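This is your field. Have a critical look at both lines of this record:
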Amino acid sequence: MGFCATNDLYGELVRKVLNMKIELPQVGESVTEGVIGKWLKEVGDRVEKYDPLVEVVTDKVNMEMPSPVSGELTSILVSEGKTVLMGAVIAEIAVDGDDEHATDALKEPIPDTLEPSQADRIGTLLKDVSPVGPTGSGGHISEGPVVQRYSPAVSRLAAEHGIDLSRITGTGMGGRVTRNDVMAVVGSQVESDPTSTGVSETDNVEVVPLTPIRRTIAENMIRSATQIPQAWTMMEVDVTNLVNLREKFRLEFKRTHGVNLTYMPFTLQAVAASLKDHPGVNSSWGNNSIILKHRINIGVAVASDAGLVVPVIHDTDLLDVAGLAVAVDDLARRVRDGKLSLSDVQDSTFTINNTGVFGSVIGKPLINPPEAAIMNTEAVIKRPVVIDDEIVVRSIMNLCLTFDHRVLDGAEAGAFLKSVKSRLESIDSDNIV
């Protein structure tokens, strides 16, 4: 039988073998790459549309990526622990014939015969190729010279540590040098030269490898500290009325709404209202411009076993205290359970970091790029203060604001913080009802 096909045969062939390239989705303007944490399917598995396909770790979230199509997982192109750019192809799925992606592919004119050069449209059958997946990194190797190209992240990392990339054997697709390859060389240099870290073989120490999320957090914080000129200010807030009000209503609130009444919903409400009055704080730096955000989406930093996560309460200004309490409780629970979705960590415009829960009374947080500011809420402490020339005991909470000095001056940052302070000090029962 010759290598040809009728229209029907060609269409059937496409339906059976059309492989769709699965790309790592974009998760936000500040996220450029992710780490493949764990594949939830194996090559040969049946995958339904929206089934969890792979766990991906970024500097914003540890997420489960769903399959965009139904079909059979035919190849895994990026193994666990590897770092890839957003938009990179990480797998291939042989889609079902009735899938809309396959239908779109069949809309092109179908040739009367299928020539070898036309076979490239539907893929190439490879033989004697090592499996690609969590335990293998093989792939089709083209003949002839290969020009190695390096990603900006790899080039930057190599330059920082004085490493010659041409001397590294890459473990990525097609021998590509990945960031993990560079870090492996860095690690080997440190191990061969103990004095560079001040650690000798006789010291009683333990070297703990970085988890993917810890590595991405570290890189994001380095970017924040080195690329943003950060200024800091603090104000004391007398939250005695808030403390008394919470104590009075907390049991009734729990019975009515099913969640605990904490100070955070009141703080969120005060911050959201103040961001409306001071829109410059709800913005970001745009090189030659300042980008004002019309929506108020406040991120709340939450500590988890894996690291710091910042889920977002979208349109914070549209929720009352009860709605905010429910939202905070829901996000915190899903952080603990590792059930955050992409939308839960996207589009934040301002961040609150509740360090007071650990007893901290003062601190300087690092800005969460690309936002213009971040605020710590510190522990509520009873202290003697002077009111009307009399010493009285009041409940005091410090608010600590770090801001991007390219976007904000001290006057605007101080006015915003004063607005939050005023709102928290004037809270009454109307804020709960």
Summary: The chain is about 30% helix and 25% strand.
